[in-house]
Amino acid sequence: MSTDAIPDLISDAQTSEERFLRQIFVRDQMAEWSKHPLVMARADGVYYWDVNGKRYLDALSGIYVAAVGHNNRRIVDAIRQQLDTLTFSPPMHGTNPVAIQLANLLAELAPGDLSAVKFQCGGAEVTEAAIKLARQYHKLTGSPGKYKIIARYQSWHGSTLGSLSASGLKSRKTVNEPLAPGFLHVFPPTCYRCPFGKSYSDCGITCATLVNDVIDAEDPATVAAIMVEPIGHTGGIIDPPEEYLPLLREYCDRHNVLLIFDEIITGIGRTGQMFAAQTFGVTPDVLCVGKGLAGGYAPLSAMICSRPIADAFWGPLAQNPGFVEGHTFEGNPISCAAGIAVLREILERDLCANARKQGERLRGHFEAMAKKHGVIGDVRGKGLFLGIEFVRDRATKERFSNDLAFGVRVGRRALEKGLLCRFDPHWIAFGPPLVTTAEEIDAMAAILDRSLGEVLSEVNVRA
Ligand SMILES: Cc1ncc(COP(=O)(O)O)c(C=O)c1O
User: Fold this and answer.
1) Residue whose C-alpha is closest to residue 295's, from 342, 329, 356
2) 73, 463 contact by CB (below 8 A)
3) How wide is the angle at C-alpha 11 spanned by C-alphas 7 and 16, nearest 5°?
4) Which residues does ligand 1 sit against, CB inside 6 Å?
5) Which residue's alpha carbon is nearest to atom 4 within ligand 1?
6) Residue range 58-63: mean pLDDT, rounded
7) pLDDT tier at 328 (50, 70, 90 boundaries)?
8) How far is the CA of 38 from the centre of ligand 1 (A)?
9) Which band of pLDDT confidence, cut at 50, 70 and 90, is reported for residue 58?
10) What pLDDT sits at residue 3?
11) Helices in 5-88 by DSSP H: which ranges?
12) Angle between the N-to-C axes of helices 333-348 and 97-109, in degrees from 0 to 180, rounded to the nearest 10
């Protein structure tokens, strides 16, 4: 092809025109989305600007990713330096110094004996790796019949077929069925709407004890692992009662079942400690992090497993092939350089403490909104991972109709006013960068408050 034949790139301004949007898939229904397309052009601190120059306060860290804020020079400089040194190492033949440094740093920071790390680019890749690790571990340690994975309804572990099979979100699963066999689902600890009709704390923590019953009923000799998000996201910030995760730990120990924490969202400071495992005081056998690990500066995720599991894969080749799992971009040096810089930034600026402090401030705002507007039934979450659930009637906990999609209306109104948050028909969540200041938290909450007030004055809340 002569250079004359190389097509020109369209300009930034044209990227929100429907004819050009038809050339790319996004996560929304495209025809709807293209009526008001959100196309971000740049970002700095806790702000985004779209291609039309409109500014947005980022109360979501993109999607729980921008842990140390946007355009953080320390991370940019670390990446620049790495670009000049090594951008790719051959994954079939080994790894690179930056990946080994980051693995050792994560092993230092992770609780208990979590100590061996597998890097990938996205969350789904490592939750899927954790599933494979559990199955291979049991094969290597004399329990080849253990293959079933117990996960939860309403959960999200990612879009690859294995992670999707573990996920429990019907809106994303049904269209892709049939999924992989060997996955079971249990109800999550949604105390505000207990699936067993009970009230905490007179409930005997049925949501946990039933997991033990399921292991028993399935035959422990067939169960490989339980995989949970310490705080569930897609079900509307499902924050478990304090007994829940310790009980899962106990059942896993009893039945030689691995406990996998999907900390793709909750990891890297979000709940006020480096890992939610520390917030809840429960150490899993395998912990998956992603999103905030490289803060959005490069794609990076990690699966961290305990020393005994890692040891099981450390054997003479004749009996042990090692961990059979891998992708081309695992341990990419650019991503790992970003990861090291992000972790240093969090540690040196004690951003976990800031997440706790600003999280309390945000919770205060949400609670004040609940009193003021009367349609917030519950405020949930930890640190800077907080959500509110909308109800038509606080006494009965009755929801707004699905058709009204109250939370979506509020979230869209907030977006119009320049606030990015996560919204669903029945809930809204915030997950701002860990660097967010008190003034920025106040500004985020003020926009949500105004948006909620406006929507309430427009819709028939009895609908
Ligand atoms: C809890 C959780 N696990 C896994 C994933 C999958 O991560 P990714 O989209 O990077 O594959 C996500 C993504 O949103 C998530 O929220």
Assistant:
1) 342
2) no
3) 115
4) 122-124, 127, 156-159, 229, 233, 262, 264-265, 290
5) 157
6) 98
7) very high
8) 21
9) very high
10) 74
11) 18-21, 30-33, 61-64, 73-83
12) 30
Is pLDDT at 199 greater than 80 in this prediction? Answer: yes
318 Cα–ligand 1 center, Å:
36
Q: What would the two tokens of residue 201 be?
A: 């704390």
Band of residue 2 on the pLDDT scale cut at 50, 70, 90: confident
Note the pLDDT tens digit of each residue in 397-417: 999 999 999 999 999 999 999
Q: What's the Rg (C-alpha) of the chain?
A: 23
- Joined together, the tokens standing for residue 238 give 């499902």
- Strand ranges for 264-411 from DSSP E: 286-289, 301-306, 376-382, 385-390
8-state DSSP, 200 = T
Comparing 25-39, 185-199, 242-256, 350-364, the range with the smallest average pLDDT is 25-39
- Which pLDDT band holds residue 219 (cuts at 50, 70, 90)? very high
Q: How far apart are CA 229 and CA 303, in angstroms?
A: 14
Distance (Å, whole) CA 229 – CA 238: 9
Edge-to-edge strands of the sheet including 114-120?
114-120, 301-306, 286-289, 258-263, 223-228, 148-152, 183-186
**Which of 64, 127, 169, 300, when mutated, tests ligand 1's pocket best, judged by the most ligand atoms within 8 Å of its CB?**
127
Query: At residue 9, what are phi and psi to the nearest 5 degrees?
Result: -75, 145
Are the C-beta atoms of residues 296 and 65 closer than 8 Å to each other?
yes
Note whether 388 and 427 are within 8 A (CB): yes
- With contact defined as beta carbons under 8 Å apart, do 261 and 231 qualify? no
